[in-house]
């Protein structure tokens, strides 16, 4: 890892976001590929790494020998500050290549409020914002994802957009780029060639004009000024790329396993794409048509392969509407049959209420209950008919009945406010449904858990409806801010049950989302101004700056309200040039039916629930929406898929994932000694625990698990290292159900552990030996300190225990920099823990003697008290109760000095961090320190001759 990055990481709150080198990540030699691309996700690592599209494209591209795809995510504000401070560019995770050095940078646009993050990433990479300002050496900037279906607000920032499915279209674009680059084609020639590829929209080749009906700019067609005389124009409208058969691209099993916990930290498998339900507010249900299913066999194989490749212990089956998968209950049952012995949980995301049958609830809860959500969206049946939701109150309450009956005690419900034709009656009905669900839960839980007194919990969330492009509600007005707040108050004042938690959404955020989703090219100026005013991470409430956005609109001379008003049906819309394959006439019909509260049954409605085999005389529902699907053929494929699943499930010898050791098997306890070095030192202790748990699974070691509702592997670690501290001789105890050889265990684990975590030895722990954590009595540290001392950034919440050490000042009894600027304060040391010298914020020291004086001052003090914040409270800690003398060795030829000291673990585990010892010595935490915990001393370990600690505890025996 470059030294510059190591200097930055101690300054940020979650450095694991920026490490790279995760298990299953791919690093290729740039000289061995024709084209290098970077997939840029304009949000934090935890969100981007959870995205299924990223996982799919990463695998598809990197399986090819001629292409390399790397990743980059938006740096959090602390990392942005550090990059600017050190004048470093934004780079990829895999090879630390600056974004500006790639051939192609593709942004995954999942959310409109990430637009300023796109500018942030371009800015940090030194890439001009607008396509017109990029020279021949700049990378091609592409956009894709659902937001690309309404691209005009950011059209000036992107060279091209890839509209639709990317598995086939993205490699074709990269192939075209490589061919033209090798042929010496210009940037302009490349863009014109891109525009003729399926699903590619190049904004600079198209002209715009203002629509007289709504006042918004729309794309009129190819711009003659962008074409040479006689040159054929690009396609108009631009038709999205469609992948006909998902099974051509089995869901990747080599998913990257992150160092840090992410939002969806599990194996997630897309079982289908598209939806036939026809909810009128839903953009995804339109832009992903028609429905395409993966075969049950492909799903089973992907799940099993993924568990072996990653070591995860949970599988999520996901799609827009999993309840409509052709054989979902049978599929979940067969998946659970393979997983239950392995302690692998299975969940189903976004399940419609009628999909949670009693059978399915029983299957999902066989290992663990991973949570359940019901999305009624509206309170009354009239309003659900307006939405074309396709569910009844009976469906909703039956789903709650089934979930609570299987022991779930928390259910989340999602509603929307600000819908077309909504009344107070609809709002009141939401509360009534929540109350009914709660009463069902109270009754069912008391029966499921053996008696009264079990109280269900209900999260009641109401988001603001945002009229999205390409959905039937695209012509609706956005409800005014004041009206939405009034509706939130109406609900919150009427929810009186303390076990029903009402959760509101930020109204101004929804308004900006509506503006950006319905916007035209004039918004690019607004976005640029807002970014200059400091707007970024606009989807995060703590970073959202509504006043700055309002000022940006005013400064740009663009009225915000016109993007929020109702749009006349006769208007040409800013996104009409994007052909989703669904006809605009179909959307108009659905909008008119909504205003009359008329329901449009889902496509193939008579056969949807698969209660009987398909018959040729079945009358399927088809609305001729334009996507040209062969509905009878699709239905027959689903029947075949269901029949094949039954055949597959009866096949003998179908493998299962690794099972943990049986509870009644003998327990063999082992202790692994390992090092945590390099970038791995920036992973937290909890992330380290997850890393080992998954590594044991990948290594094929059947660990012993705990009993109870949510079983966990029986792992025990030495006391947690502070973030950024290396460990030379850490240890972990684990239990197997059968004896194993130490050298073999070492190799198996090192083969699957990430870079920087290395097993050095494995020993059998003898019966009756004390617990690992309780046996540790002290830790030996070595710290390399720069001779020139500057203060490090103190980040709240860093390291174990979430301790924030307070800067020294008068209130803490320690001097601030101004007071210490004189003689260094060496005469002010006080045995009673009063004020003592601190190096000023400017550079100090420079010679080893300056450091030695501070070390000797610390050693001479019988008491050295600091103030620290622990769990929100200030506490005083005497460092000398935990450490003896600090020794030093001169390394001034390298510009540093080495310190060594031991820190005790007192009764109850109380201790101090090595950073706090450094603060006790210097009065501040010096920047650029390298801290290593070199060894741990155990109560059960007899000392070596000469007083040195023994390498292996007496309670273990080498195997």
Q: Your description of this structure?
A:
Helix 5 packs across helix 17 (523-532). Strands 20, 21, 22, 23, 24, 30, 31, 32 and 33 form a nine-stranded mixed sheet that branches. Strand 7 and strand 8 (217-222) form a beta hairpin. By secondary structure, the chain is α/β, with parallel strands linked by helices. Among the domains are: 3-239, 3-Layer(aba) Sandwich (Rossmann fold); 668-770, Pseudouridine synthase I, catalytic domain, N-terminal subdomain (Alpha-Beta Plaits); 777-939, no CATH class. The model is unreliable at 606-614, 794-843 and 942-959 (pLDDT under 50). It contains 26 helices and 33 strands.
What is the overall number of helices?
A: 26
Largest sheet: 9 strands, mixed
User: What's the CATH H-level superfamily name of the domain at 3-239?
Assistant: Cobalamin-binding domain
Strand fraction: 15-25%
Provide key terms for this protein:
26 helices, alpha/beta, Alpha-Beta Plaits, Rossmann fold, 959 residues, disordered C terminus, six-stranded mixed β-sheet, 33 strands, nine-stranded mixed β-sheet
Annotate the secondary structure layout.
Blueprint: H1 3-8, E1 35-41, H2 45-48, H3 52-62, E2 67-73, H4 77-85, E3 104-108, H5 115-125, E4 140-144, E5 160-162, H6 166-182, H7 187-194, E6 200-201, E7 206-210, E8 217-222, E9 238-239, E10 267-270, E11 272-273, H8 284-287, E12 292-293, H9 296-310, E13 314-318, H10 328-339, E14 345-348, H11 358-364, E15 372-377, H12 381-387, H13 393-405, E16 410-417, H14 424-448, E17 457-464, H15 481-492, E18 500-504, H16 507-517, H17 523-532, H18 546-556, E19 578-579, H19 584-595, H20 631-649, E20 668-676, H21 685-698, E21 715-717, E22 726-736, H22 742-750, E23 757-765, H23 772-775, E24 776-786, E25 788-789, E26 803-805, H24 817-820, E27 844-845, H25 848-860, E28 865-870, E29 873-878, E30 887-891, E31 896-904, H26 914-922, E32 930-938, E33 956-958
Parallel strand pairs: 1-2, 1-3, 3-4, 4-5, 9-19, 10-13, 13-14, 15-16, 16-17, 17-18, 22-32
Antiparallel strand pairs: 5-6, 7-8, 11-12, 20-22, 20-23, 21-22, 23-33, 24-31, 24-32, 25-27, 26-28, 28-29, 30-31
């Amino acid at each position: 890892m470059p030294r510059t990055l190591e200097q930055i990481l101690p300054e940020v709150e979650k450095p694991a976001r920026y490490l790279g080198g995760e298990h299953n990540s791919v690093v290729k030699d740039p000289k061995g590929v024709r084209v290098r691309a970077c997939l840029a996700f304009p949000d934090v690592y935890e969100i981007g790494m959870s995205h299924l599209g990223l996982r799919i494209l990463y695998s598809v591209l990197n399986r090819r020998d001629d292409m390399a795809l790397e990743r980059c995510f938006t740096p959090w504000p602390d990392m942005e500050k550090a990059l600017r401070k050190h004048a470093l560019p934004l780079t990829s995770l895999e090879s630390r290549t600056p974004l500006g050095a790639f051939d192609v940078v593709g942004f995954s646009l999942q959310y409109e409020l990430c637009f300023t993050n796109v500018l942030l990433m371009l800015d940090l990479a030194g890439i001009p914002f607008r396509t017109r300002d990029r020279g021949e050496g700049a990378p091609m900037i592409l956009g894709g994802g659902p937001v690309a279906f309404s691209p005009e607000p950011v059209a000036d920032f992107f060279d091209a957009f890839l509209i639709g499915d990317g598995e086939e279209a993205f490699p074709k674009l990269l192939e075209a780029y490589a061919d033209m680059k090798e042929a010496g084609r210009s940037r302009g020639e490349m863009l014109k060639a891109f525009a003729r590829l399926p699903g590619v929209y190049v904004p600079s080749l198209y002209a715009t004009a203002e629509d007289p009906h709504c006042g918004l700019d729309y794309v009129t067609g190819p711009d003659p000024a962008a074409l040479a005389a006689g040159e054929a124009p690009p396609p108009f409208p631009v038709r999205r790329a469609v992948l006909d058969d998902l099974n051509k691209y089995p869901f990747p099993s080599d998913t990257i396993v992150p160092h840090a916990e992410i939002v969806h930290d599990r194996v997630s498998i897309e079982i289908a794409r598209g939806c036939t339900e026809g909810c009128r507010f839903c953009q995804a249900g339109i832009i992903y048509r028609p429905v395409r299913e993966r075969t049950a066999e492909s799903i089973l194989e992907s799940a099993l392969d993924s568990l072996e490749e990653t070591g995860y212990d949970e599988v999520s089956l996901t799609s827009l509407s999993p309840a409509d998968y052709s054989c979902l209950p049978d599929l979940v049952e067969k998946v659970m049959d393979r997983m239950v012995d392995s302690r692998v949980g299975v969940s189903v995301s976004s399940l419609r209420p009628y999909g949670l049958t009693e059978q399915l609830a029983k299957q999902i809860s066989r290992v663990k209950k991973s949570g359940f959500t019901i999305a009624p969206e509206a309170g009354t049946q009239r309003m659900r008919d307006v939405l074309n939701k396709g569910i009844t109150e009976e469906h909703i309450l039956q789903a709650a009945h089934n979930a609570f009956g299987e022991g779930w005690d928390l259910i989340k419900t999602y509603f929307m406010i600000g819908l077309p034709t909504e009344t107070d009656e609809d709002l009141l009905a939401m509360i009534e449904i929540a109350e009914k669900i709660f009463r069902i839960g109270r009754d069912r839980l008391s029966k499921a858990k053996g008696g009264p007194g079990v109280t269900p919990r209900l999260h009641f969330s109401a988001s603001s409806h945002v009229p999205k492009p390409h959905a039937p509600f695209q012509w609706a007005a956005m409800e005014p801010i004041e009206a939405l707040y009034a509706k939130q108050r109406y609900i919150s004042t009427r929810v009186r049950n303390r076990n029903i938690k009402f959760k509101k959404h930020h109204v101004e955020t929804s308004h900006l989302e509506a503006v950006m989703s319905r916007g035209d090219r004039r918004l690019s100026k607004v976005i640029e101004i807002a970014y200059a005013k400091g707007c970024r991470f606009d989807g995060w409430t703590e970073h959202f700056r509504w006043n700055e956005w309002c000022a940006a609109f005013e400064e740009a001379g663009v009225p915000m309200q016109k993007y929020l008003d109702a749009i006349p049906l006769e208007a040409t819309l800013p996104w009409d040039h994007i052909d989703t394959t669904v006809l605009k006439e179909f959307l108009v019909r659905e909008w008119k039916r909504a205003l009359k509260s008329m329901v449009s049954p889902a496509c193939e409605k008579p056969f949807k629930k698969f209660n009987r085999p398909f018959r040729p005389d079945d009358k399927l529902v088809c609305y001729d929406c334009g996507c040209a699907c062969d509905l009878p053929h699709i239905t027959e494929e689903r029947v075949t898929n269901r029949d094949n699943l039954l055949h597959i499930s009866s096949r003998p010898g179908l493998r299962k994932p690794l099972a943990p050791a049986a509870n009644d098997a003998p327990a063999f306890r082992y202790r692994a000694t390992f090092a945590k070095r390099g970038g791995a030192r920036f992973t937290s202790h909890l992330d380290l625990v997850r890393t080992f748990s998954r590594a044991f699974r990948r290594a094929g070691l059947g660990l012993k698990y705990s009993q109870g509702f949510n079983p966990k592997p029986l792992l025990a670690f030495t006391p947690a290292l502070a973030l950024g501290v290396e460990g030379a001789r850490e240890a972990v105890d684990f239990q197997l159900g059968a004896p194993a050889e130490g050298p073999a265990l070492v190799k198996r684990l090192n083969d699957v552990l990430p870079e920087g975590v290395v097993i050095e030895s494995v020993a059998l722990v003898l019966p009756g030996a004390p617990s690992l954590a309780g046996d540790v009595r002290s830790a030996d540290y070595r710290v390399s300190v720069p001779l020139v001392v500057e203060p490090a950034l103190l980040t709240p919440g860093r390291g174990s225990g979430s301790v924030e050490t307070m800067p020294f000042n008068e209130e803490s009894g320690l001097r601030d920099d101004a007071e210490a600027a004189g003689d260094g304060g060496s005469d002010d040391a006080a045995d009673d823990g009063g004020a003592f010298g601190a190096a000023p914020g400017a550079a100090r020291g420079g010679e080893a003697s300056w450091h030695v004086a501070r070390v000797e001052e610390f050693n001479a003090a019988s008491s050295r008290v600091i103030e620290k914040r622990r769990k929100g409270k200030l506490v005083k800690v005497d460092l000398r109760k935990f450490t003896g003398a600090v020794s030093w060795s001169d390394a001034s030829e390298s510009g540093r000095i080495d310190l060594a000291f031991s820190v005790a673990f007192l009764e109850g585990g109380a201790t101090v961090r090595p950073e706090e010892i450094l603060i006790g010595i210097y009065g501040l935490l010096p920047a650029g320190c390298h801290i290593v915990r070199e060894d741990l001393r155990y109560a059960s370990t007899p000392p070596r001759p000469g007083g040195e600690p023994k390498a292996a505890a007496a309670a273990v025996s080498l195997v």
